[in-house]
Design a protein that fits this description.
alpha+beta, globular, Methylamine Dehydrogenase, Chain H, 5-stranded antiparallel sheet, 32% strand, 53 strands, 945 residues
């Protein structure tokens, strides 16, 4: 970290009340007192950041100076797009500045004759306040700008039509000294001298919440009270608050507007707080697990500045006596590594950090995926969209549903999502001590403190308690993955948190939190560990606000170390949960860096239920060469024993193998394939040979089909009971330089493959072609990100399509703003095209549960964004051609798909149309037809009897 105080940035030795860095990072603005008026100055950032630029006299320091305000300027703020600068002052005015090619608006340095480098003109003067304007804030997307004043009001101005006033927020009984917007645009917050903080709704500008408790002890006030909202929208941090007689910055949680934590340590009142613009991420120092957190700067009247990371309990940096007067404003650069701060003594300071100190900002697409999951919207939600025009509700079905926010359908039923119930834990910290150090790393004087009385401890951090192998207790936060839709099979980044918790340690998942597996710990139910994709129950992730939970403490168990052979199979040295945690064992296959068959080193095993097959290459030396052992075992979990039931040898090293209920398939380096009886070890087939060695092998879940893929892309599936080939084809036509990383065969004989480039396919015998499941295609990318509200599914038997699609390694949109996700005109067409293709794939692979889900998703999409023509087309198809008004199709179509009546799908679509009042007549029309057909079919059934 570097600290620099450029002496040449000043307002003729007068106070500087506000500072703000331009979104481009190339300039910054200051506002304060001029010689005989208010002054706004736009400065060049380059001489501040670089000594070389500062010494170069050809590089200007001042870009423009505006002395138009009649009195002191209290606040300057750049718009989000950087095109406009707003300034507010004691003259009761808000001025909006815009850069022009030339002309009036700026004067030379401090009133001298020097010519301005840039020309900024006042394009609008906003008059409406009856007193000094103290703070300004642009809304997300610059739709509005809010100003607050000593007249006790906040005015919302229409930034598209200056100087139009949208609304005047009245309710404070004291001077309003700070205002900030919720990053997702739902709320605006203000703080006042009346010892309250108010949260206002942007939908109708009503006061949603008034918070007073943290401010009741506040006596003397400050010139400004600049509060700030975290970039993830989860936390609002106030300026001057009190706890136990000491000044604090109050942390207000969006979830329930709880006020049970605050930042303590400053000796005098906190004047301003400012969150870093981005959500940050980095690897935890000790565990290298990925952390996700926010960064906050806090300034106070004690002339000290503290920097906080919400992943730490104590501040990252504390700087004392930075100025000779109170800190009055703070601003982060958009790249995230520069912080500017200004003081009433007329000076500014620049703090430069590194990525190692602060972390790296989350990409715009990841940030907005986070918004999508937490709030059902992204950062660029159209704030101008008004609620649907009032309509007369003609159908009683719409009375309740049309007013509620429609929720997208979920693939996994809710009762399955909530199977695991956890209990919340309790930790209390108190670091309420005075500041002592001049500049300290992780200063012990500051900390996050509970705002409740010490006598009544309240839960501050919800954490998980586990026991390590040496018996020590470990408190670990548990996070929900953020980028599940980008996860690959061997992706280690599935510990990315999707929400930020103050004071959280490094994120570690429960599945590898130091638990040792018993040697004989095979699940009593058949676990399909022989497959590349393991069937596991999906964790409950439906509600993000309950993201931290405590797992019920397991009773102490006697643990034995893993055998060397077992450790080889589990892969990366991570320990595995015990069976009592009800987690199916996950056996990771070796990672094929080149797609070439790799000889298994040491000893490795795979299991199906109580059967275990173990392979050890080069274990027998003979005069003819070395042999590999293949051993069959029966493992008893109850008796904690294992028994060898057969043993055989192979003459060529084994490169891959798989185990089913009755058979095992063993593939060797010399291109040979052996199918062995899992109970006796005798061959089921004679030794087979293909043109190249196999790199993947798998059984279907019913163990009747065995499949292999070779280096050259040959795919074979055999029907083991019938001892016949089921499918013979090649993957080479779709591999194009990549190789197969996952192979799965459904019970119906449909092979699914995932390639190293992230694309996935399924072969259809009926079409004699590979069906595209996942790729970098923009329609597929948009469809998968837009329709995946929960964590990805990992249940290959029940949900094969979603499971395979969850293993793609593609990133999100490549745009800078992510505005496309829900605003562009192509969205609806792309979403419907994707969903309809998903429906056709589900039909071909015979996945009824997913078929029903995607019909429901189609109804959801049509209800929100569909046209009447498209809705009628879908409903006519589900109703049946003979009942449709459109008789061009002629032939009677099949009334069911995969054994499910089309009328069931039609009901799902209609239920989603019911959420939008504008579709009520279509809903009523088709519901009447559906009821008529049901009654007729019922009469026909009775007549047939």
């Amino acid at each position: 970290m570097k600290i620099f105080q450029p002496s040449w940035v000043h307002h003729d030795e007068k106070s500087i009340f506000s500072i703000d860095i331009h979104p481009s990072g190339e300039r910054f603005a200051t506002g304060g007192q001029g010689c005989d008026s208010g002054r706004v100055v736009i400065w060049n950032m380059a001489p501040v950041l670089s000594e070389e630029a500062e010494a170069n006299k050809s590089i200007p320091r001042i870009l423009c100076q505006m002395d138009n305000h009649l009195a002191c300027v209290n606040c300057v703020r750049w718009s989000g797009n950087g095109l406009m600068l707003a300034s507010g002052g004691d003259d009761k005015l808000v001025m909006i500045w815009k850069k022009t090619i030339g002309g009036s608006g700026g004067i030379g340095a401090f009133g001298g004759g020097a010519k301005s480098v840039e020309h900024w003109r006042c394009i609008s003067t906003l008059r409406g306040h009856a007193g000094d304007v103290l703070d300004l804030a642009w809304s997300p997307q610059d739709r509005w700008i809010a100003s607050c004043s000593v007249d006790n009001t906040i005015i919302i101005w229409d930034a598209q039509h200056f100087p139009k006033i949208v609304h005047v927020l009245k309710g404070h009984t004291g001077l309003v000294k700070g205002v900030t917007w919720d990053p997702v645009g739902k709320f605006i917050a203000s703080q006042s001298d009346d010892r309250s903080l108010k949260v206002w709704k942007t939908t109708d500008w009503s006061c949603f919440k008034t918070i007073t408790e943290p401010f009741e002890e506040c006596g003397g006030t400050t010139h400004i009270l600049r509060l700030s909202w975290s970039p993830d929208g989860q936390y609002l941090v106030s300026a001057h608050a009190m706890n136990g007689g000491g000044p604090t910055a109050q942390i207000i949680e969006r979830d329930g507007w709880k006020c049970d934590k605050d930042f303590v340590g400053h000796r005098k009142a906190v004047t301003c707080v400012r969150f870093h613009n981005s959500i940050l991420k980095r690897s935890a120092p000790k565990t290298n697990k990925l952390q996700q957190y926010c960064c906050l700067a806090v300034g106070a009247r004690d002339r000290s500045l503290s920097i906080w990371l919400t992943a730490l309990q104590r501040p990252l940096v504390v700087i004392h006596d930075l100025f000779q007067d109170s800190i009055l404003d703070l601003s982060w650069s958009c790249d995230g590594y520069t912080l500017l701060t200004c003081s009433g003594d007329g000076h500014i300071a620049c703090l430069q950090f590194t990525a190692q100190e602060l972390g790296t900002p989350l990409s715009e697409e990841d940030k907005n995926i986070l918004y999508q999951r937490m709030y059902g919207k992204n950062a660029n939600i159209d704030l101008t969209a008004q609620a649907e025009k009032e309509m007369i509700v003609e159908n009683s079905d719409f009375l309740n549903l049309s007013k509620s926010n429609p929720l997208p359908p979920t693939l996994i039923p809710q009762q399955q999502q909530h199977q695991q119930q956890h209990h919340s834990g309790m930790v209390k910290k108190d670091y309420h001590k005075p500041l002592t150090n001049i500049v300290s790393q992780s200063s012990p004087a500051m900390g996050i403190q509970s705002s409740s009385s010490p006598a009544t401890p309240t839960p501050i951090l919800k954490q998980i308690e586990t026991k390590t192998a040496d018996g020590k207790r470990r408190i670990t936060p548990m996070f929900i993955p953020l980028n599940d839709d980008n996860e690959t099979v061997s992706n280690a980044a599935n510990n990315i948190p999707s929400a930020i918790e103050f004071g959280s340690k490094s994120s570690e998942t429960m599945s590898n939190a130091g638990m040792k597996q018993l040697t004989s710990d095979e699940p009593s139910v058949p676990s399909v560990v022989a497959m590349s994709v393991t069937e596991t129950a999906e964790p409950a992730t439906s509600k993000l606000d309950n993201r931290l939970k405590k797992m019920a403490t397991l009773p102490p168990q006697k643990a034995e170390p893993l055998a060397a052979a077992d450790q080889q199979t589990t892969g990366s040295g991570h320990t595995v949960p015990t069976v009592s945690q009800r987690l199916v064992e996950r056996t990771r296959l070796p990672t094929y860096a080149t797609g070439k068959a790799t000889v298994i080193q040491g000893s490795s095993f795979k299991a199906f239920g109580e059967l275990r097959v173990q392979v050890q290459n080069n274990s027998v030396k003979t005069s003819y060469g070395t042999l590999g052992r293949v051993v069959g075992l029966v493992v008893s979990v109850a008796q904690r024993t294992e028994k060898k039931i057969w043993e055989t040898v192979v003459g060529s090293p084994v490169v891959c193998f798989a185990v089913g209920a009755k058979c095992a398939i063993v593939c060797s380096q010399d291109h040979t394939i052996r199918v062995l009886d899992a109970k006796t070890g005798t061959p089921v087939f004679p030794v087979l040979s293909l043109t190249s060695p196999a790199v993947q092998s798998a059984f279907s879940s019913n163990s009747k089909l065995a499949a292999v893929v070779t280096e050259s892309g040959i795919l074979r599936i055999w029907n083991v009971p019938e001892k016949a080939v089921f499918l013979s084809t090649t993957c080479s036509e779709i591999m194009s330089g990549s190789f197969v990383t996952i192979l799965h065969v459904s019970d119906q004989g449909m092979p699914f493959i995932v390639l190293s480039n992230g694309s996935s396919y399924c072969y259809c015998r009926k079409l004699d072609s590979w069906m595209l499941i996942n790729s970098s295609d923009p329609v597929i990318r948009h469809g998968l990100i837009g329709n995946k509200a929960n964590a990805p599914v990992r249940n290959i038997k029940a949900y094969p399509l979603s499971t395979i699609q969850s293993y793609g390694s593609f990133s999100g949109p490549k745009t800078n703003s992510f505005a496309e996700l829900h605003s562009s005109s192509w969205q609806t067409s792309a979403a419907i095209a994707f969903i309809e293709n998903q429906i056709k794939i589900c039909e071909m692979i015979a996945s009824p549960a997913e078929l029903k889900h995607w019909y429901a998703m189609l109804g959801f999409q049509l209800a929100l964004n569909g046209s009447e023509e498209k809705i009628r087309q879908v409903l006519d198809d589900l109703l049946g051609a003979s009942h449709s008004l459109d008789t061009r199709n002629g032939d009677e179509c099949d009334p069911s798909v995969l054994g499910i009546s089309k009328h069931i799908f039609m009901e799902d679509v209609l239920n989603h149309l019911k959420t939008q009042t504008k579709w009520q007549r279509i809903y009523t029309e088709y519901l009447d037809q559906l009821k008529f057909l049901k009654e007729r079919d019922g009469r026909d059934a009775i007549g047939a009897k």
